[in-house]
Amino acid sequence: LDEFEQIARLFRPLAFGAPEALDLMDDAAVIAGRPGFDLVITKDAMVEGVHFLSEDPLNLTARKLLRVNLSDLAAKGATPCGYFLAIAWPPGCDESRRRLFADGLRLEQLAHEFPLLGGDTVSTPGPFTASVTLLGWVEAGRMVKRRGARDGDILLVSGVIGDGGLGLQAAKGELDALGADAVAYLADRYRLPTPRLALSAALRDHASAAADVSDGLLADAGHIGEASGLGLTIDLERLPISPAAALWLARQADPVAAYAALAAFGDDYEIVCTAAPASLDSFVAAAAEAGVGLTPIGEARVGQGVSARWRGRDVALARTGWRHV
Amino acid sequence: LDEFEQIARLFRPLAFGAPEALDLMDDAAVIAGRPGFDLVITKDAMVEGVHFLSEDPLNLTARKLLRVNLSDLAAKGATPCGYFLAIAWPPGCDESRRRLFADGLRLEQLAHEFPLLGGDTVSTPGPFTASVTLLGWVEAGRMVKRRGARDGDILLVSGVIGDGGLGLQAAKGELDALGADAVAYLADRYRLPTPRLALSAALRDHASAAADVSDGLLADAGHIGEASGLGLTIDLERLPISPAAALWLARQADPVAAYAALAAFGDDYEIVCTAAPASLDSFVAAAAEAGVGLTPIGEARVGQGVSARWRGRDVALARTGWRHV
Description:
The structure is a homodimer.
Chain A lengths: L2 H9 L17 E4 L4 E11 L10 H18 L3 E11 L5 H18 L3 E8 L5 E11 L14 E5 L4 H9 L8 H12 L8 H7 L2 E4 L4 H12 L2 E5 L7 H8 L4 H10 L6 E5 L4 H10 L4 E8 L3 E6 L2 E3 L10
Parallel strand pairs in A: 3-4, 8-11
Antiparallel strand pairs in A: 2-5, 3-5, 6-9, 6-10, 7-9, 8-10, 11-12
């Protein structure tokens, strides 16, 4: 399976006949401007053994790779337009494994109807490595930035927090004491996070700032605060958690430290955002209509950094999320 | 040097203050449409030990990475707009090596005035790996495609052919018999190919189809033929070669096989293109005015595949360029 056969068999079908992709037979793709819209562009890379486990099947890896990029688009209020893919295949990655990877891409593309537009495949002696550059459309000037939070805004988060980090532990077999159902649920949340594209329109209409939760709630809320020149306060007891995370919490000696740990975990791919108090009710209602829970968890104030409270009292944070090196 | 310090010190300066980059503090970049223009997008990846030598300094690697992507834009008649970068740093890649890489990026960006718009940096246990997604502007509908060649068109190539492949051999110390000057020239051509952005306007105005020569002249001409549904014939004795390649040629027993080898080598990053016979003179003149030599080397005809002639007689080709796996 040389490069050209690989493109023909595995990747050309993923272009969905999009004219921009030129059947993946050209040096580049060409995207005509869409009057009244901006392009939102994000790029994320994943390395075997660093961002996913070597034993994870490649279709799941492909799906997660697209999902983490879709999560960035969702946070910006954008809608997927298409993507570019670079893959470095290690030795021994035969056609069946490559096909498995392509199958995973296809499933995610079908779910959100966007084509593969181009890319590059190379060989590597090292671990499997892939990067995606995902493009999305957003109405001109309406991308939701990190830097838009204002003094007095409410801090909110979508879905539940902490499942990503617990899910990694569950996938490694470290949480078997929680029971098979909780382990399966958490590991699945880690392996296949749900990008909150359903929230895009509500974010555009109501959020003053937003980011997705990849480095951890505390770190990503901190990014909003830093970009906006404000401090953020989080009420730990208000964090929305899943029933499986509640099982884990019940086994922790110190509930404050446990909630702080959930807020520091990465890989949740929820949306953390801010909104003016006056638009809170309509924001939460619009999110609910889109099928996404949205929970107020704190506020933005003049100041800097992220601080935490437990039932109204300040608590010290040991760390504010994962810092990748 | 954690991820955020790295962004602040090494990469934010490369954004050149472009508003689209949002100071590299957001999840994504946002690019406003430019009325009357299309976006041309290309993506290429490089792996240490596969696409460059492990002993190559990282500033040269960075420059080549951008240049091979710029070469794709040049072939499409586009002008650089900005780029996204994913890097996987191996263990032991300290701040000074990272800074060297950033210095190389900066030099190429300054030469063609385009900003870094976003990306991702991760760690890897394996070899250094990087991918670039480069965006360019082209007047709406005027991207030069591979699929535009017509029956009777002249086949042309820019600059000289074969230096890339000979340069790899020279860099490995396999061509010392050619003398130090030739070795230095060829190795430099391999390490720092010149993207033919100067040719962009002439290509838009005169070429019916174009591709850059990365896989080898025969293979990349073949891509034009395949995409256009035509066959291509190349007159090997017309291939433009450098004085250093002429030194090498003079030492080869079989000149036909030697020319065929030059045409099969990869990594030249010249432009192979087709043009109607009626526009040949004005095309060559426009290229010359832009400082780029353009040599007619064959023609496009009804048929398929690439065939070669030597002084008017058909010759068999052993292979049609590199096929990456």
